[in-house]
């Protein structure tokens, strides 16, 4: 719907202005979240952070198209989507600071824990969607994954089951061109990842993943289809991972800077900002207010992550089984004994 320079594609019907402004605020916050989380890694406050810089439109759109009762199933790279869904940024980053849990109330937010293993969350998403259908509930599920996940067996099982049982789930593949260091052409011989939908008997749609209005339109339709009983949809968002896989990765070993520079001109935040300013929906004062709001979020995040959380070693055993096994009780007692004699 929007060209990289912010001009509207002829014939495109953009979402309402208030929705575009909401989306732009989400992009500003997502970009600042990525920047601040990266800084926290360098300061030693976070153990790792997989940045979604360049993919923020996918993150924000995924949260915006869901109703209150719907579910979001994120990957390790989807912290911005979790925050856009309403989770406190400090809670969203709890797992990435090395804590034993995901940090937020999964049921309250209808956001599953971030999944590090590739594609496992897709099976969980389909299970929740299938259960909703069996119970006659109107809820839809949106499951995020990357292009690397499409090479996993769990991806096949999830899509096949969802299609056969018409589960109300949308699969959003953020095709950012690399599974860590493996480029897309080394993973799939298909013309596009959206083409894979044909083999499962579900609609497949390819969309510009750096175009927020286009993402909102495509995902709105997919969620509506799922909610109405029409079954799942596979959406491939064509985007790019601007930064390294994580802070532990050296992206310069497997891609050229010229490639990264070419994608910088398709920045989703700049693209939408240009359109909003051209339509006189955004001015300097409004831009400053959004930036200040994002800075407050970043400041609260720094304060929250810096706070030391009390640690109870026995939590290692308290949340494994509802009724601890003899082996767990033995290990717990051994730890207690060691702690008692430690000077």
**What is the strand tally?**
7
Principal-axis shape equals globular
Low-confidence stretches: none
What is the average of the pLDDT values?
A: 96
Structural class by secondary-structure content: alpha/beta
Strand order of the largest sheet: 1-2-3-7-6
Break the fold down into its secondary structure elements and pairings.
Blueprint: H1 17-42, H2 56-64, E1 71-73, H3 79-84, H4 89-92, H5 106-109, H6 120-134, E2 141-146, H7 153-164, E3 169-175, E4 178-179, E5 182-183, H8 196-200, E6 204-208, H9 212-227, E7 233-238, H10 257-264, H11 268-278, H12 284-306, H13 315-318, H14 326-341
Parallel strand pairs: 1-2, 2-3, 3-7, 6-7
Antiparallel strand pairs: 4-5
Helix pairs in contact: 1-2, 1-11, 1-12, 2-9, 6-7
Family: Belongs to the BCKDHA family.
EC number: 1.2.4.4
Domain Dehydrogenase E1 component: 31-296
Q: Can you walk me through this structure?
A:
- The protein has 343 residues and is an alpha/beta fold.
- It has two domains: 17-309, Thiamin diphosphate (ThDP)-binding fold, Pyr/PP domains (Rossmann fold), CATH 3.40.50; 312-343.
- The chain is built from 14 helices and seven strands.
- The chain has helices at 17-42, 56-64, 79-84, 89-92, 106-109, 120-134, 153-164, 196-200, 212-227, 257-264, 268-278, 284-306, 315-318, 326-341; strands at 71-73, 141-146, 169-175, 178-179, 182-183, 204-208, 233-238.
- It has a five-stranded parallel β-sheet, with helices on both faces. A two-stranded antiparallel ribbon has the order 4-5.
- α7 (153-164) links the parallel β2 (141-146) and β3 (169-175).
- The longest helix is centred in the N-terminal third of the chain and has 26 residues, at 17-42.
- The chain is globular, with a radius of gyration of 21 Å.
- Pfam families: E1_dh.
- Residues 324-343 are annotated as: Disordered.
- InterPro entries: Alpha-ketoacid_DH_E1_comp, DH_E1, THDP-binding.
- Its cofactor is thiamine diphosphate.
- Residues 31-296 form the Dehydrogenase E1 component domain.
């Amino acid at each position: 719907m929007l060209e990289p320079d912010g001009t509207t594609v002829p014939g495109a019907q953009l979402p309402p202005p208030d929705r575009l402004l909401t989306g732009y605020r989400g992009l500003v916050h997502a970009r600042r979240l990525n920047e601040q989380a990266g800084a926290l890694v360098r300061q030693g406050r976070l153990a790792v952070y997989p940045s979604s810089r360049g993919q923020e439109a996918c993150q924000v759109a995924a949260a915006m198209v869901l109703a209150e009762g719907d579910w979001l199933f994120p990957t390790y790279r989807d912290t911005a989507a979790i925050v856009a869904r309403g989770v406190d940024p400090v809670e969203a980053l709890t797992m990435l600071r090395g804590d034993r849990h995901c940090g937020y109330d999964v049921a309250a937010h209808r956001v599953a824990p971030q999944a590090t293993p590739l594609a496992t969350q897709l099976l969980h998403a389909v299970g929740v969607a299938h259960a909703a259908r069996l119970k006659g509930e109107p809820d839809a599920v949106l499951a995020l994954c990357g292009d690397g996940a499409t090479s996993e067996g769990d991806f096949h099982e999830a899509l096949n089951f969802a299609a056969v049982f018409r589960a109300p789930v949308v699969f959003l593949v953020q095709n950012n061109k690399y599974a860590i260091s493996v480029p897309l052409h080394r993973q799939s011989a298909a013309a596009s990842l959206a083409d894979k939908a044909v083999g499962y008997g579900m609609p497949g749609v390819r969309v510009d993943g750096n175009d927020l209005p286009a993402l909102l339109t495509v995902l709105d339709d997919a969620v509506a289809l799922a909610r109405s009983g029409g079954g799942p949809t596979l959406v491939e968002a064509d985007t790019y991972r601007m930064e390294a896989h994580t802070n532990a990765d050296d992206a310069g070993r497997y891609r050229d800077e010229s490639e990264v520079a070419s994608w910088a001109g398709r920045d989703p935040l700049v693209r939408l900002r240009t359109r909003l300013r051209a339509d006189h929906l955004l001015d300097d004062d409004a831009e400053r207010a959004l930036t200040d709001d994002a800075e407050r979020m970043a400041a609260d995040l720094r304060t929250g992550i810096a706070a030391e959380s009390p640690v109870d070693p026995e939590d290692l055993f308290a949340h494994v089984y509802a009724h601890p096994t003899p082996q767990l009780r033995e290990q717990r007692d051994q730890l207690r004994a060691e702690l008692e004699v430690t000077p």
